[in-house]
Amino acid sequence: MLSTKGLNLTMLSIPCVKSQQLHDPQSTKLIAKFENPTQFQEDCDAGYDQFLSRNVVVRHRYFSHFLEQKQDLYEQLLILGVGLDTKPDTLPCLKNKAVYGCDLAVADIQNIYQATGVHTQTKLVACDLENGMDQQFLTRLQAQGFSLTKPTLVLWEGGTFYLSPEAVVHDLSFLNQQLNLVGLLVDYMSSAVFNPPRHEKARRQLDLVAKIGCPWKSFFTPVEIKQLDHKLGFTEINVTAHGKIEQRVFGKVQLDEDIMYLSAAFKSVAGTK
Ligand SMILES: C[S@@+](CC[C@H](N)C(=O)[O-])C[C@H]1O[C@@H](n2cnc3c(N)ncnc32)[C@H](O)[C@@H]1O
Predict the structure, then answer these.
(1) What is the pLDDT of residues 84-97, one digit of tens each?
(2) For the chain, which domains are there?
(3) Mutation to probe ligand 1, out of 7, 9, 10, 217 (largest number of atoms < 8 A from CB)
(4) What is the pTM assigned to this prediction?
């Protein structure tokens, strides 16, 4: 048995949900050898109407849809705060793409893959997204084969809220300037629900993430998300409230309809619409 001591429990909770709810075989293998991997998931789900489980499924469905629908637009995928995301190893549309993932906890991630014997096609590069999105990070990415000129899609799922709003805007602006960025898939926790907390459940959620050492620091409105996407030069912009997808996937909205906003933004590329 492997111990969860010292690991970022939010990271392990995602394969737990994908194993239980989506029957994702790669996720099942990733958690199989851990002692108590569901601990954070259970605390989080119990305190807030199954928040974590429903949120992970909603995010996964929304982003997988766009990764597939826009597969001819991009040649490589860069995942920010990649954690143990299994999409690069399970989605058919990513099978022939080059996939790069950065994270603060790259050493933990590599240890988990090694200890479990699970293979990932994601090329992992260390980065602190709070203050490390710079030329040196790009150099480390390029050393793994990343191209600054190939059409690139950036996916940032379940991660912006761990950073300050300034860092979120800086990171996306920097990548937009430096890469051939054709698409951006990002989710944001809602200002209206968490800043300040709308109710006791939202307050407890903020206390829980602070207690495990991963406090939430940024919250956005749909207007702010659209303005940012426009400023970055995106022309096709979709911003969807969590509840819209929750309704579609689960047949009912159990969480606050506006608990999170998911966005997919694309640039028109010559020859495409
Ligand atoms: C909730 S997990 C989401 C993982 C993955 N994107 C997914 O959806 O399966 C958040 C991830 O963000 C990473 N993270 C948190 N703060 C970070 C920072 N300052 N820089 C880089 N990564 C960070 C964590 O290590 C963790 O892997």
Answers:
(1) 999 999 999 999 99
(2) 57-266 (3.40.50.150)
(3) 10
(4) 0.96
